[in-house]
TrEMBL record:
The lineage of its organism: Bacteria, Bacillati, Actinomycetota, Actinomycetes, Pseudonocardiales. SUPFAM superfamilies: Phosphotyrosine protein phosphatases I (SSF52788). This is Arsenate reductase ArsC. InterPro entries: Phosphatase-like_N, Ptyr_pPase, Ptyr_pPase_sf. The keyword Signal does not apply. It is an enzyme of class 1 (oxidoreductase). One of its GO terms (molecular function) is arsenate reductase (thioredoxin) activity. NCBIfam families: MSMEG_6209_Nter. The keyword Cell membrane does not apply. Its EC number is 1.20.4.4. Keywords: Arsenical resistance, Oxidoreductase. Residues 79-204 form the Phosphotyrosine protein phosphatase I domain.
Length: 211
C-alpha cells in the first residue's frame, strides 16, 4: 500500500514518540519494524486511512511493552491479563473496559481477536457507557506472539481452537453469548456477566478493585 505524505509524516512522528518512550530498551530498527508491521495489520481492512498511523502507534506501543516484559526490562510485577474472543469487537473489549476501570494502574490488560472486526460493536459501546465506561476509542486487533508470551492470564471468550496455547500460562474460558448483532437490551446481560467474571478474576489475582 502506498502511503500518502501525511501518513508518512504521521508514522515518522509516531516512531519518534515510541523511541523516546523506549529509549535505552529498544533500538530504532526494532521500533520501526514493530510500527510498520502494526500498520500493516490494519491497512487492509481500515475504512478510515487517516487514523491508521495512530492505531499503528497504539498497537506498536502495546507490543513493545509486551516484548519488554518478556525480555525482563519491565519489573513492576503487575499482573497482565489478555482477553481474547473472535472479532475483538464485543466481549473482550467489554472485559478490557471493566478490568482497566476497576484495576486502574494496579494491573495491565490487553485484548485481541482471532478474526478482528472493523469496528467496536455499537451496542457494546452503549451498554458500557451505561456503566460510565467508554470503550469507543478502542479498536479490534489481533494478538501477536510477544503479547501472548507476556500475559500471565489468558481469558478465552469464544475463540475456541484458534486461541493460542503457550506452556506455563494460566488459561480461563468464559462461556458468554456473542453480542454481535444484538441490541443493547440483549447485550446488557452479557455485560453484567463479564463484570462479575472480571471482579472475580481481580480478587483471585489479589488486585484491589476500585469501589
Amino acid at each position: 500500500m502506498t502511503l500518502s505524505i501525511d501518513q508518512q509524516l504521521a508514522l515518522k512522528t509516531a516512531a519518534s514518540r515510541l523511541q523516546s518512550q523506549f529509549d535505552g530498551i529498544f533500538g530504532t530498527e526494532t521500533i520501526e519494524r514493530f510500527l510498520n508491521t502494526s500498520y500493516d495489520q490494519f491497512a487492509s481492512n481500515s475504512t478510515i486511512p487517516n487514523f491508521l498511523p495512530l492505531l499503528a502507534e497504539r498497537f506498536a506501543r502495546q507490543r513493545l511493552h509486551a516484548l519488554a516484559k518478556v525480555e525482563g526490562h519491565v519489573t513492576d510485577n503487575k499482573p497482565i491479563v489478555l482477553f481474547l474472543c473472535v472479532h475483538n469487537a464485543g466481549r473482550s473489549q467489554m472485559a478490557l473496559g471493566f478490568f482497566e476501570d476497576l484495576a486502574e494502574d494496579r494491573a495491565v490488560a490487553w485484548s485481541g481477536g482471532s478474526e478482528p472486526g472493523n469496528e467496536i460493536n455499537p451496542a457494546a459501546v452503549e451498554a458500557m457507557l451505561e456503566r460510565g465506561i467508554n470503550i469507543s476509542r478502542e479498536f479490534p486487533k489481533p494478538w501477536t506472539d510477544e503479547i501472548v508470551r507476556a500475559a500471565d492470564v489468558i481469558v478465552s471468550m469464544g475463540c475456541g481452537d484458534a486461541c493460542p496455547v503457550f506452556p506455563g500460562k494460566r488459561y480461563l474460558d468464559w462461556t458468554l453469548d456473542d453480542p454481535a448483532g444484538k441490541d443493547v437490551a440483549d447485550v446488557r446481560p452479557v455485560r453484567d456477566e463479564i463484570e462479575r467474571h472480571v471482579r472475580e478474576l481481580l480478587q483471585e489475582l489479589g488486585v484491589e478493585a476500585r469501589v
